[in-house]
Amino acid sequence: MRASALFLTLVATATLAAAEPPSMDTLRAKLEAAMQDAHAVQRAEPAPAKPRRAAPAKPQPAPNKPAAAHDAPHWSYQGEGAPEHWAELSPEFALCATGQRQSPIDIRGGVTVDLEPIAFDYRPTGFSVLDNGHTVQVNVGSGNRLTISGKRYELLQFHFHRPSEERIDGRQFEMVAHLVHKSDEGRLAVVAVLLQEGSVQPLIQQVWNALPLETGMAQPAPGSINLTHLLPEDRRYYTYMGSLTTPPCSEGVLWMVLKQPVTLTAAQIAVFSHLYPMNARPVQPQSGRLIKGNAE
Ligand SMILES: [Zn+2]
Hints:
By secondary structure, the chain is an alpha+beta fold. It has a domain at 101-293: Carbonic Anhydrase II. The chain is 23% helix and 26% strand. The protein is built from 7 helices and 16 strands. The strands form 2 sheets. Strands 2, 3, 4, 5, 6, 7, 10, 11, 12, 13, 14, 15 and 16 form a 13-stranded mixed β-sheet that branches. Strands 1-8-9 form a 3-stranded mixed β-sheet, with no helix packed on it. Strand 10 (175-183) and strand 11 form a beta hairpin. Zinc ion is lined by residues 159, 161, 178, 245. The site of zinc ion has 4 residues, from strand 7.
């Protein structure tokens, strides 16, 4: 990465961190990870194959970044960085192998109960789009919340996987959007919106329109988005306790997987798969966890 590009990345990091004080650490960590991955992409792929990636350049020393950040491992979905090797890449990733409450899972064999509705409180907010080298991530402005079990969570970001990481009775979907929320106490709650081919999804089109030309830099997008428009009409869901599906695979994450998929067109799927043909972690053992779901 050229020094100028690195500088811009650092500016983006600072800007984002400043815009979202509650998630500063999370964002900083994510962006640092994104920078690492941008380095990996440059080393692994010559420029002509992927013109939208930054041109390969000898990494320059970055005096204002800790050296350790440059030694961070590179995780991915295939080859040496594939999910089965995540735990070997860093001691911090140990849970990816040893955890007993990992995500994603194949949702089956749960109990049917009357689940409390998820109280979504989403509103139009500004957003920026980041290709972090693992997925397309949308950072949203503050003020988007949900309440469940009397606890309030704030939406930090959402991102995509192809195909869907979670399965329902073995069925995998074309894609999934993960809406990542955090409570004041730092607890994470992720809402999964399954995506299948069908009619156009205007909110996703807004995101694709704002895709940055380079990885590792969050690009502020024009206008605002209202995540209510990404939710299906039917808000019934499955819920279980799991983990982040990417390193460090931290556990204690409340998962709520909405049962009704929303649609996007084949052309919209093609945009994402051009960047990420496969970025889904394999399903993990249920290990006797309770899964609850609303009646059909
Ligand atoms: Zn995810």
